User: What shape does this take?
Amino acid sequence: MSKVDVAVPVTTVPVSPRRTRSLALPAVATAVVVLAAVPFYLDRFWLTLGLFAFAAAVAAIGLGLLLGQAGQLSLGHAFFVAVGAYGYTYLAGTSRTVGVSHQGGLGLPPLIALVLAVLLAGLAGLLFSPVAARLRGIYLGIASLALVFAGQHILANAPLVTGGYNGRTVPPLTIGGFGFDDGAPGTQLLVLGVPFHREERLWYLGLAVTALAYLYHRNLVRGRPGIALRAVRDSELMAGMMGVPVTRYKGYAFLVSSMYAGLGGVLLALAFGRIVPVTFDYAMSIEFLVMVVLGGLGSAAGAIVGAFFVASLPRLLDRYADVLPGLAEPGGDGVSPAVAARFGYAIALILLLLIEPGGAAGLGRRVANRFRRNR
Amino acid sequence: MSALEVDGITVRFAGVTALDGVSFTVAPRAIHAVIGPNGAGKSTLFNVLSGAYRPARGSVRFRDVDLTHRAPYEITGLGVARTFQNIALSGAATVEENLVLGRHHLTRAGFTGTALRLPHVRREERRHRARVREIADFLGLTEVLHAPAGRLPYGDQKRVEVARALCVEPELLLLDEPAAGMNAHESALMAHLIRDIRDALGIPILLVEHDMGLVMGIADRITVLDFGVRIADGIPDEIRRDPAVQRAYLGTEGES
Amino acid sequence: MTQFLQLLAGGVSLGAVYALLALGFVVVFKASDVVNFGHPALLMIGAYTIARLGLSQVAFPLAVLGGVLLAALTGLVVQRFLVAPIASTSVVTVSIMTIGVDILAQTEITRRIGVDILSIADPWGDRVVRLGAVDVPQARVAGLVSSVVLIGLFLAWFKLSRWGIAMRAVADDAPTAALMGVPRKVISALAWTLAGGLAAVAGVFITAFPTPGLQPATASVALAAFPAAIIGGLDSIGGAIVGGLVVGLAESLAEGYEERLSFLGQGFHSVMPYAVMVLVLLVRPTGLFGTRELHRV
Assistant: This one.
């Protein structure tokens, strides 16, 4: 085709000749290296904190995909996390009677149970997507709220799965004979002189899964699916007219994000070691939303930062309650650490939205731009 | 043998009849303009053609394929591409990303393949991005490919929209007020561009326009709507002399 | 048959209270384009204040007034200092901010209540009124009467007074209303204040019967405002009232016929509002009376 003679120059916007590189990948890669060294230096408290943070991060990345990329507001994330957690526990668990409660279980190999649990969560997401397809904006958000309450209701009426109100233990994960637990009694796993108990082993599982989850998301959003999802987010009508099958893509978004949630749920169950139904409530859905917004919508690295912040804060405040003013030690005066943590991230959310609606990722971009401009 | 056949399209919204039995045909290599006073139903027509509205009655056939009750993405898949009256670009995304969106129906990369960066996905992406760069080059957009589309001046955004429609590799191009908000010089360039596209691709182009100068200059055939009804259809000279058209425009021949 | 009438009466009076809640929620949405996730918090603030005042031997009517004023003031403060500054950003951003407000307020109130159950010291207690063939708790009757009166007053104000008309203008078409001289910020502030007050009143009746008093769990009852508003259509005042009634009736009937519905699981009545909401949304994606979006490209 011949070039059109354009008299008006189209260089009115100053732009660097190379595509601007995001600093997220190098930052995350550095973090992975640092985190890999942690079990050799830090004690069990930090490892446990990390396990919960990794679990939250994986689920948060999924919500970030749904909300930040596809623009679908979901308050039902806790439901899919529960499907993952209880799916794994039931599929891998054995039937037995503990006290007066009967627990059911299929006794499948834990790795198989994990995969099936994630698929089950994805299936749940897929089943919800026709409902989601018909709804927009806040109507979708509040409809997805129904999922959380439905989930709580189902769990309350399924003692065979949940082990009743007091919960049940989560079967440890084994992959090809290697157990992510303390190992057979009397044995010890030594790595570079450091004994690897349950927390150390699960740490690497959590780290690996989170890193893979991040990479998967990153590749997705840079490619054709990401472009299509963002078009759906910006304008469903326009996206359709540009050739994107909107309903199908909303379905994909729910499928993938609920699989992320399910995987996070499995990690959460493994981190807890024992799960109770009330954990997966409306407050948990809200917490995930806070993580994603704090981190910055649309950014997986941001979601991870937000997840680490929200998941760690209560445990950190708990650990340092004696040093921090105003915090109560168990049974003492003052504000309990859990409460203080909630104040903490609620205030962080409000302040952040007042100052930088783009979240941590937005702040990161501002810093990166300033850094680039000063070179 | 016509490329596009619009037959008896009727659209009603909450008691208002936006289009009433509108019919016309577009020849294979024609530049066909749809004009009429404000509120005549021109954009409604476009929305029917691209699948956003369901007509109460009537049909649309493109190369003998019925478009009437298909979803918008299916219509795009059949080679119908459009631009929008009020720009519908993703403002925060780069120009390149906006253009790549147009390639969606021509590419296959799925979630798994993209996430795992499989070789065939990477190859496909390279191929299509190269084509996008070609099209951007054709429209003089190479310099701003990596700029956020929302930051471009209005006229350039309109050009991005046309580029995006071309990325669809259209067999029929629908341009919704391509010269809106442009001065005389920019409109002339746009007219030039439209003719270049038709000549290079050999496809029919249907455009809605208010700018009479542009329309009279490049249209092979003109359909005139007023209050949702077709009041005239013919070559520019016939339309210029048509008394019904003159009446609809209150006796003037339109804007300069 | 009497059981049905009984449940009907209970459902209508519960529904009227839900309607008050949903009404405040919808008014805020229409006037300031914000989905206020902190609405349950407004209810809790009002109810907690009333309970505390009651414990300090303040007479019930004065305690209620105190709670209403404090909740209304909270609404005003939130609108003035948190919503108004970022009103220009997206609806989603502001709505998510209200989540932060909700967490703050509810965490604090939960902390103060602890494991106690605070009586709201209402004058009706467990007493029952006989209406024809059915026994209706006095508290429920009081709730119904108060709701009808308040909703009636609100509708009259909305339709007839200058400020009410101004609010309708803003809800309809904010930019034009601004051009016509209607102060958008004032209308918004008014809406939030009203929502706080109505939530406090609803809080009185939700706490008075049948629960022994205010507990942290009361907030999840207040959550029913969301499905009620959605069922009616988020931008419909009349819809909020209808939605509240629907939710109240559905809950009441589901609870009353629990044995017959045992296959749905125990405690299904608390999930009922959400089940009804999903059913309505499947048929009417924007609620019963909500405006269907007109797509203009």
Notes: Residues 119-138 of chain B form the longest helix (20 residues).
